[in-house]
Design goal:
- This protein is mainly alpha-helical and 288 residues long.
- It has 2 domains: 3-128, no CATH class; 132-281, no CATH class.
- Helices cover 73% and strands 3% of the residues.
- It has helices spanning 3-33, 40-52, 55-59, 67-85, 89-108, 110-115, 117-122, 131-155, 183-200, 204-236, 243-272, 277-281; strands spanning 161-163, 166-168, 173-175.
- A 3-stranded antiparallel sheet has the order 1-2-3, with helices on one face.
- Strand 1 (161-163) and strand 2 (166-168) form a beta hairpin.
- It is globular.
- The two termini are 31 Å apart.
Length: 288
């Protein structure tokens, strides 16, 4: 790489960091303070590895800069300005990913964007869901988790009465809060299933099934967590439903959900047969 290109790359990187430094800090704050998005710290390094994995494919592609990439970059900067002025962080964050795509498109060409479509799309997972959408997802999940937990407790012969997201037991009432809705497990499991499908399974149909299965798997697993908390509270008191047990049960539930996805993939492999050697070598059929 020539000195001029290195200088241009450094100038572009510095300009990008200067333009989006506020967005980087907003993202870091959410990853640090909101447990639902703590996986955000891993998204960029993973996307970088997925890009590095394609280094030979990228080096073989001709450099064909496109003016359309410049148009897309202007749109990204407009989105940044609009999101910053309107205090709409989601728009500004989406513009970050758009600007990355546009810069590659403008500097290298559309073929490079296509080759990097999965790593670039993967970057979207670092962006927190807008509150208006998050709340529409979280509250129904709270009710579902409460209902599954109450039904499980009733099936075990424990007297229980549910009012919305509150489970009334003989000794105490359990409030299935937003943090216990299961959306954290759902988001993390969705990310995990994408990566697992990409690295372990070359067939698109199984990849899609694994991703879609994260929804019912996460819901059922979280319902079991609520039920387990109810069992502990009923037999051992309120202290058993708090502190270490509550945190530890979250990890156990996530582990169970992960094992369920592994089992699902094995079941699909038995039904559909093993992937051919050629399809395993050509891992280029991706999600997007």
């Amino acid at each position: 790489m020539s000195i001029n290109r290195v200088g241009a790359l450094l100038a572009l990187t510095a300009s990008f960091a200067l333009a989006y430094h506020d967005v980087f800090f907003w993202l870091a704050d959410d990853w640090e303070l909101d447990g639902n998005y703590s996986h955000g710290w891993l998204i960029v390094p993973i996307a970088a590895y997925l890009t590095w994995e394609r280094r030979e494919q990228l080096s073989a592609l001709p450099l064909r800069p496109s003016k359309w990439g410049l148009v897309a970059l202007v749109c990204g900067i407009i989105g940044l300005a609009a999101g910053t002025l309107a205090a709409e962080t989601f728009v500004a964050r989406i513009s970050l990913v758009l600007s990355v795509v546009a810069t590659i498109w403008y500097a290298c060409g559309a073929a490079h964007v296509i080759a990097l479509r999965f790593p670039l799309a993967f970057l979207l997972l670092m962006i927190p869901i807008p509150d208006i959408i998050f709340n529409r997802i979280a509250f129904p999940l709270q009710l579902i988790a409460s209902d599954l937990g109450a039904q499980s407790l009733a099936a075990a012969g424990i007297p229980v009465y549910r009012e919305g997201n509150v489970i009334n037991l003989a000794r105490l009432n359990l409030d299935v809060a937003e943090a216990c809705s299961g959306i954290r497990s759902l988001i993390s499991l969705f990310t995990l299933s994408l990566l697992y499908g990409y690295f372990a399974e070359p067939r698109m149909v199984i990849r899609v099934v694994l991703v879609l299965a994260t929804i019912p798997v996460a819901i059922l697993a979280n319902g079991l967590r609520v039920a387990a908390t109810g069992f502990a509270a009923h037999y051992y008191g309120a202290q058993a439903a708090e502190g270490f047990f509550h945190s530890f049960s979250g990890w156990i539930v996530f582990l169970v959900a992960g094992v369920a996805l592994l089992a699902l993939r094995q079941a699909l492999t038995l039904i559909l047969g093993s992937a051919s050697p050629s399809s395993k070598l050509a891992r280029t059929e991706e999600y997007v």
